[in-house]
Amino acid sequence: MIRITSIACIAGFVAGGFGSSSASDSIPVKDSARENPFLVSWENQAYRIPPFSSIKEEDYLPALQKGIECQDQAIQSIVRNRAEATFENTVLALEKSGELIDKVSAVLFNVAAAHSNENLRQIEAEAMQMLSSQSDKVYMNPFLFRRVKRLKEQGYVTDPAQKKLLDDMYRDFVLSGAELAPAVQDSLKVVNARLSELGSRFAQNLLLATADYTLYVEDASRLEGLPADALQRAARKAEAAGRKGYAFGLDNPTIMPFLQYVKDAGLRKEILDAYAARCQAGSKYDNSQIVKELVGLRLKKAQLLGFPDYASYVLQTRMAKDSESVYALLDEIWPYALDRAKDELAQMKKFRKKEDGLKGDFLPSDWRYYANRVKQAEYALDENELKPYLTVDNVRNGIFYLCQRLYGIGFELLPDAETPTPNTAAYLCKDKDGSVLGVLFLDMTARPGQKSGGAWNTSYVEQSYSEDGKRLTPVTSIVCNFTPAAGDEPVMLTMDETETFFHEFGHALHCLFSDVPYEALSSVPRDFVELPSQVMEHWALHPLMLKEYAKHYKTGEPMPQELVDRIQEVRNYGQGFATTELLAAALLDMDYHTLTAFPADLDPEKFEQAELNKKRGLIPEIYPRYKSNYFSHIMDGGYSAGYYSYIWSEVLDADAFDAYVESGDIFNTKIAESFRNDILKNGGLYDAMKMYVKFRGHEPDPKALLRSRGLIGE
After folding, report:
1. Is the whole-model pTM more than 0.90?
2. Of 497, 504, 530, 608, which residue is the catalytic one?
3. 7-179 is classed in which CATH architecture?
């Protein structure tokens, strides 16, 4: 959203105090004399950290409405200006016109994702409708677009950063319908409003469906194989619910260990069936109709804008540029992954028959269990042996060590800082010269029913520059869903969770190192944004890194060399399954969004089977990573026609890490400095591929990914 803060506009405003009626009137104001904290400058807040303790839920919508009014006033000033359009009086003024809107939105949506409740979900849904309407109003303003277009056509803006901002702004206007006839714009506004509403409903249904299910098991013998810490947590969960025995939910920190370790095949099937049934047809929180309508409306939006399908519209702003390039990559990797997955399946079936005497159907709920057993048998590696060395504090300290080693930066705990969510720590990041780069929040453990699933990095305050040329530091946050500690023990991570922590920290570094002159230029293409995060994963379990941070939480002893060696041996084990389920999700996303005609009888489950199982030969023993009705990334999370970005970026990151390997030093500071200067600090200031080529010297080689995942030889 484009930004401006008008002090005159917000001075003296109190919660609920503006005169015009709005959607926010439905939110009660308990203290009409209390100053709304969003309408006070935060520049005097320590390190620009928002005053979270002062913000109440009833502050969001009134402040957002005032932000919309301020933006409307700013835009009126721009379009009524009789002077010739310039960068300052048009582009920069427009860029700043939504600062208050962004200020409110950042806190609202970030808190709602990490620590939600029913009231906050209602506020979030209302805010999304307000923002959708405002976006249409701005980008379909013909007088505003006329000034932007005239400025672009004149060619007077030659400063590279200013020109990039102008070009991006012009493109956003066109892609938002600025050139459409008024009647078509009206149709597009209706579509946009409905899409916003449906995305919010989809997310809320998924959150509620995930929290709504609990598997209770009274007989502990049926949970044979489950690690003791997971058993303890399940016992506490049952006790809190007033039930005997053990309780298990559908959050990832619960269900993944369950599927990996519990011997009872019936229980594994029961919980995976419940996981896969979330929001499916006929369920309490059925998302089938929402998926159908979302897909249809996205196609309608794309075609109103002159594109044959939604993917063609979305890819205008991505590195890939077109769906042919996306499919070319996915189709190149698919046969390697699927063939390896079939080999893994054959190996597990053979093992199951030999060890357990079982010959029946091999179910999706059997995969993780037997993959773990084969891994233990073949490599003598049980991940429970590793977890005491991979506590969340150890891994965090390892990441801090890596950042200091590569970039010379440090992190200091801010014990008294305000934080946005419970169980969250704040750290001050300083550059090697002692200057402040920004603030980082770490919110590590799961809160089922309150926190969305998965892990992510997000910003509460973006990096920008003041009018006097001072770099204004960002405030960013890493949110994870690691399994909470059991009793007095620390939070302990699996290998996958360790890589997740490193991954999200790469995103945070991208934010902390950002040094762009205009806030909007911090955004990068969706299929480039995963490069900084995924390249960090290469260090996570590297022997030289494990030596530095993997220490037993009780004894302080380093991880034994035999365990380190076994981790390296097993790193590429199971890559057939991992790559196939990832590609299946990416292909499903693209298949939905390359439809050029909407099938009136679209059924998500049948569509999945037709596109993945029948057309591409996905074996029934593997589910896609996400089924349509709980595929939050593409239905409400901004990754529609973009889930391929993970594998696209992995081509980049595998090739990028090869630069360190080729140098003979994975801690090569010269390469790290180049990566920082050529990529991390530039945001979207330059073309993504040009930035990559400047760093690496050539375009990325897809074979690097296949080698990295062990799908082909060196």
Report:
1. no
2. 504
3. Orthogonal Bundle (1.10)
